[in-house]
Design goal:
The chain is mainly α and 82 residues long. It is built from five helices and no strands. It has one domain: Orthogonal Bundle (434 Repressor (Amino-terminal Domain)). Helix content is 73%, strand content 0%. It starts with a helix and ends with a helix.
Length: 82
């Protein structure tokens, strides 16, 4: 799972639409969708805005997003016998 997938999961848990989050980030829904799909990197400014919008301390938000990548790395290692 990448950062975009983690952001999508949190957004859905908060019951926010992509349109609403995109509006809050002052971008189009199409561009926001690219972040969730991992097609583009999220800027630090927008990452901080998302943490605020999701009402999460930045350190917690970073841990949640980082944890998903570590879990994926462990699963990949297990699958390939590393």
């Amino acid at each position: 799972m990448n950062i975009g997938t983690a952001i999508k999961k949190i957004r859905k848990e908060k019951d926010f639409s992509q349109e609403y989050v995109a509006y809050k980030l002052e971008m189009s829904q199409a561009n926001y969708s690219k972040i969730e799909r991992g097609c583009v990197n999220i800027s630090l400014e927008n990452f901080l805005k998302l943490a605020d919008l999701f009402e999460m301390e930045i350190i917690v938000f970073l841990q949640v997003c980082g944890q998903t990548d570590r879990q994926t790395d462990r699963q990949t290692d297990q699958n390939f016998g590393r």
